[in-house]
Amino acid sequence: MVAGRRIAIGLALCPVVGVLAACGGGPSVIGVRDPWARPAVAAPRDATPTSGGAAAAMLGGSNSVVYLTVVNTGDGKDTLLGISSDVAAAVQLHRTEITNNVASMREVSTVEIPAHGEVRFDPGSYHLVLANVRHTLAPGDTIDLTLTFKGAGAVQVHAEVRAQ
Ligand SMILES: [Cu+2]
Predict the structure, then answer these.
(1) How far is the CA of 132 from the centre of ligand 1 (A)?
(2) Ligand 1 centroid from CA 100, angstroms
(3) What is the pLDDT of residues 108-122, one digit of tens each?
(4) Which of 98, 142, 144, 138 has its CA nearest to residue 122?
(5) What spacing in Å lies between the alpha carbon of 64 and ligand 1's midpoint?
(6) Geometric angle at alpha carbon 154, from 145 and 95, rounded to 5°
(7) Whole-model pTM?
């Protein structure tokens, strides 16, 4: 059976190329489109809870949010495993979900990127939270992020800070 043999060969190769490929029909090819970040104000070290104003206090005084689109032009799916940045003490992966017209948000640990597909991180869906920024992010600044994928490995992203 020709089809069966082809599948068997494909599976046998997986452990060999598994480091680079996601083992889902071929390697992923990951790119990031239009990354941008919201401005944020770094709280002074001795800040009191009210020193940043009501809006800042609500956000903990120093969070930014990053939006982008992850594009996979490869034949295999991939998985976003984590994000890091020197700008923030921690980067969280969130997803906004709307149920009965009420938006809620939860932290997720991974995001799957389909083969020949894309996943948009936008205000209605996934977003990255830069918690406790180390310095103030003003419009026009650029921040560096590292996205780590199961198949593609580390992908460097330069996101512009925008006021929108
Ligand atoms: Cu969130």
Answers:
(1) 14
(2) 19
(3) 999 999 999 999 999
(4) 98
(5) 10
(6) 60
(7) 0.74
The residues near 41 (Cβ < 8 Å, ≥ 6 apart) are 52, 56, 61, 62, 133, 136
Q: Does domain 26-161 have CATH number 3.40.50.720?
A: no
Find the 97 Cα to ligand 1 centroid distance in Å: 10
pLDDT one-digit tens code per residue, 61-86? 589 999 999 999 999 999 999 999 99
Distance (Å, whole) CA 92 – CA 102: 22
Give the β-pairing of 153-161 and 30-37: parallel
Give me the residue spans of the domains in the chain: 26-161
In the 8-state DSSP scheme, what is residue 15?
Answer: H
91 in Cβ contact with 133 (< 8 Å): no
Q: How far is the CA of 98 from the centre of ligand 1 (A)?
A: 13
* Dist. CA 129 → ligand 1 center (Å): 6
